[in-house]
């Protein structure tokens, strides 16, 4: 039935051809539909492929962009790293340059400081040398002045003595003929010869006792000249003026009397002093001891000792130098000697057994204390503490070890002390002390390090080395090795120090 709208009218039947055409049309429509569907599928697949390609391209572009970005970032990082490395290297180079500059500046400052210190030390040494030269010149001038004064006084006294001798000779020549004639007349008349006159006179004072055979002996004493004192020019003229001639027959008599008396004392004294202890105990008669003629002569010479004028003594420095010169000459005349220990009664040996363990560092009469322990105004350091005691003495005066000990140090000064320095270590009553000795010259050192010394041994000689205005011993006493000092004089007094002459 066809699609006619008129009902009841049947459609004519289709022929085979129509059927075949209809089938072919349906098949074609079906094929067309399938083809369209296939085309649509292909188009979809193409679109999907294109989209996939687009996505792939997008991903590739994204990957490329990411790679590019990564490369850029890596390049930037490398650039930054290179920049940082370059900056670090530049900073290191700048630091090295700055360090080198700083080191050069430090070396330059150190060199300048060392040069300044050397210059200051040289100036100080030059000033010290100039001060020492000035002090030495001043001391030499003072010593020369003192020696000139002493020489003038000696010449003046020699002139006075020669004038007195000439006057005595003239008086004796005038009285000699009359005395001989009087004695000859008395002998011819049978009268005994007159005994020697022992009446005290200016030549034989009453306070000088006779010794030996009690014969009057001519004693040389100093006479005070009458009238006003003579001037130096007059004294020099008198000293150069030849003395009045004297007969030799009268010049040897006083000398013979003195020599005879000395001979008697020299022979009789030892003979009476050789008696043993038993002989002295059994003797019933004692021998009176008489003063030696030499003692009287020494006393007379001491009474006529030279005295420096008031003008020279007014200067403290000159007076000190004069005292040192007199002390030095006294040391030359009276060397320290020890009496023998085998005396007749053994008293000397008994006394020596009780000698003190500590002695003075310088012999009595050979020094004076010039600067004490404590604060003072030093010519070198100003107002400062003086750590020792200064014993002013002539150059070359012996310095003694104050006690038994060991030489700890010998060398240049240390801890602010001048050269040379000798340190002794002592053990006294269980306590340890150290004595320091300063200002000696190298050729005046008599000990070496490690040497053992006894109290009273000579360890050095007084000098004026280093910071010194004159020959003296700077003596210190230390209680430890840390530089703790005490008053040397107090220490010596507390330990009962005696003169070195007592250590025999």
UniProtKB/TrEMBL annotation:
Residues 18-30, 38-54, 61-73, 109-125 have a biased composition (Basic and acidic residues). Residues 74-103, 172-206, 222-232 have a biased composition (Low complexity). Residues 1-134, 171-252 are annotated as: Disordered. Transmembrane segments: none annotated. It comes from Georgenia yuyongxinii. Residues 385-488 form the M23ase beta-sheet core domain. Gene3D superfamilies: Glucose Permease (Domain IIA) (2.70.70.10). One of its GO terms (molecular function) is metalloendopeptidase activity. It comes from the Bacteria. InterPro entries: Cell_wall_metabolism_enzyme (IPR050570), Dup_hybrid_motif (IPR011055), M23ase_b-sheet_dom (IPR016047). SUPFAM superfamilies: Duplicated hybrid motif. This is M23 family metallopeptidase.
